[in-house]
Amino acid sequence: MKTGHFSKFPIVLALLLTLRSAVKQIVAVDGMSGTWELLLNSTGVVAMHVALTHLNTVVLYDQTSSGRSAYHLPRGLPCPSVSTDADDRKESGCWAHSMEYDVATNTIRPLSIRTDTWCSSGSFLSDGTLEQTGGYNQGARRIRYFRPCADRNCDWNESSSTFLAEGRWYATNQVLPDGERVIIVGGLNVFSYEFIPKSRDDEGRL
Ligand SMILES: *[C@@H]1O[C@H](CO)[C@@H](O)[C@H](O)[C@H]1NC(C)=O
Ligand SMILES: *[C@@H]1O[C@H](CO)[C@@H](O)[C@H](O)[C@H]1NC(C)=O
Fold first, then answer.
1. Distance from residue 69's CA to the centre of ligand 2 (Å)
2. Closest-approaching ligand to the CA atom of 131
3. Centre of ligand 1 from the C-alpha of residue 41, in Å
4. How confident is the model at residue 205 (pLDDT cuts 50, 70, 90)?
5. Any idea which ligand is nearest the CA of 147?
6. Which residue segment(s) compose the domain that 45 sits in?
7. Closest-lying ligand to the alpha carbon of 124?
8. Other beta carbons within 10 Å of 126
């Protein structure tokens, strides 16, 4: 038994080596061989969501109730709102839960996201703005925008007057062919869809 097992070993090894050189050849043929390179040790926030913008920057954001991140927000920027919910109270300070990574300069800057984006969803509009909706707790009906800018001065903006018709957790967003409107479908235990912006108040309500 043991001998049989060992006698197979050279065959397996030969197979593996053949496979390895075959893979190497495939990689070489299409010129796509690459390696991972560590550019930064930490982004400072957890990348629950990651989106590449048309200005070659990457926006990362996490749930706001995850406590401290690596960045205390600079003075003057608004703190994420603190609700009465125990989960959200953990975010007692002004900590960034979103950041923008500039691929060209390999630099990062913290952004200020205000309400909980945990399990939120989003879609890019045709002008490159990331429209981001829903989430958890007081973030569940929020509509947020991140409009990338070349001067790196832009930040999230969140509508304080327009809300989703229903709280949406894990919804699905899809930009429509006009590039300006987004259909948002479902969410946990939410069996409806809606459009942002709406053409009538009750548009999309089931
Ligand atoms: C990551 O951290 C290690 C240990 O401090 C350091 O040696 C290395 O240079 C850092 N790498 C980058 C890309 O910053
Ligand atoms: C937020 O961004 C949206 C989309 O770019 C824009 O229409 C709106 O005017 C912005 N609001 C604020 C307060 O900047």
1. 26
2. 2
3. 6
4. low
5. 2
6. 41-196
7. 2
8. 11
Structure tokens at 109: 């800057």
Asked if residue 125 is part of any domain, the answer here is yes
Q: Whose CA is nearest to atom 6 of ligand 2?
A: 145
**Residue minimizing CA distance to atom 10 of ligand 1:** 41
CA 48 to centroid of ligand 1, rounded, Å: 23
Residue nearest to atom 5 of ligand 1 (CA): 41
At 94-130, the pLDDT tens digits run 778 899 999 999 999 999 888 889 999 999 999 999 9
Tally of domains in the chain: 1
Residue 2, pLDDT > 80, answer no
Question: If DSSP codes are grouped into helix, strand and coil, which group holds residue 58?
Answer: strand
**Per-residue CA distances from 101 to 59, 81, 96, 108, 173 (Å):** 6, 24, 14, 4, 24
Q: Which of 36, 37, 38, 41 to mutate to test the pocket of ligand 1 (most atoms within 8 A of CB)?
A: 41
Q: Mean pLDDT, the chain, as a whole number?
A: 81
SS3 141: coil
In a domain, 134, yes or no: yes
pLDDT tens for each residue of 52-93: 999 999 999 988 877 778 877 765 556 655 444 554 444 444
Residue 72 is given by DSSP the state B
Residue type, 107: T
- Look at residue 78 in the predicted model and tell me its pLDDT: 60
